[in-house]
């Protein structure tokens, strides 16, 4: 996968491009301390709203790229492609622990989250708000597959609160 990503990177006038998406390589602390800094001002709930919103808006764009790459593939392989892209650019390692389509449920194990170092296992709850925000991407993939549903996300395990790894559950939201 890394070769695939590497072979596909281009840098034009300082804009790093991969599959039509622009990426900026930053130290992980840039993102984790940004989130921690926001939390110091806005508290966990305010930070949740801001970080998930940013991830959701970005996810809507990325889903189009994933769809273009994974056109015609079964849903699970589209998910795997997205997770492999994330791993290739350093967001950690992912494992699909459960995937059912009817009703929809996706459980993803996540190793090496970006929040690991900054919270040191002492947070009072999960903190992978950027991961939570990927729900829009999954909704977009589902919509393209003919399932126009809303998802709710629960981060059941998180290194920020002392768990060994993170675990996110995306489920069909009954509303
Ligand atoms: Zn986490």
Attribute tags:
4-stranded antiparallel β-sheet, single chain, Muramoyl-pentapeptide Carboxypeptidase, domain 2, binds zinc ion, 175 residues, 3-stranded antiparallel β-sheet, 45% helix, alpha+beta
Characterize this entry briefly.
With 175 residues, the protein is α+β, with helices and mostly antiparallel strands. It has 6 helices and 7 strands, in the order H-E-E-E-H-H-E-E-H-H-H-E-E.
Proportion of helical residues: 40-55%
Q: Can you tell me the residue ranges where pLDDT is under 50 for at least 5 consecutive residues?
A: none
CATH H-level superfamily: Trafficking protein particle complex subunit 3
Helix segment count? Answer: 6
User: Structural class per helix/strand content?
Assistant: alpha+beta
Under the CATH scheme, which class?
Alpha Beta
User: Biggest sheet, strands in spatial order?
Assistant: 4-5-7-6
The hetero compounds bound to this protein are: zinc ion
CATH architecture: 2-Layer Sandwich
Radius of gyration: 16 Å
- In percent terms, what proportion of residues is strand? 15-25%
Mean pLDDT: 90
| Major sheet summary line | 4 strands, antiparallel
- Total beta-strand segments: 7
Shape: globular
């Amino acid at each position: 996968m890394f070769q695939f990503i590497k072979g596909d990177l281009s840098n034009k006038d300082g804009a790093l491009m991969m599959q039509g998406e622009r990426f900026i390589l930053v130290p992980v602390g840039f993102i984790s301390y940004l989130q921690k800094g926001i939390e110091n001002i806005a508290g966990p709930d305010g930070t949740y709203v801001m970080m998930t919103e940013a991830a959701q808006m970005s996810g809507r764009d990325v889903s189009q790229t994933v769809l273009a790459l994974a056109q015609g593939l079964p849903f699970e392989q589209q998910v795997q492609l997205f997770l492999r892209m994330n791993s290739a650019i350093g967001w950690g390692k992912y494992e699909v622990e459960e995937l059912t389509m009817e009703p929809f449920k996706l459980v993803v194990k996540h190793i090496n989250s970006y929040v690991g170092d900054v919270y040191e296992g002492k947070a009072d709850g999960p903190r992978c708000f950027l991961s939570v925000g990927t729900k829009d991407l999954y909704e977009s993939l589902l919509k393209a597959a003919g399932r126009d549903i809303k998802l709710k996300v629960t981060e059941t395990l998180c290194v920020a609160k002392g768990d060994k790894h993170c675990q996110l559950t995306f489920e069909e939201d009954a509303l």
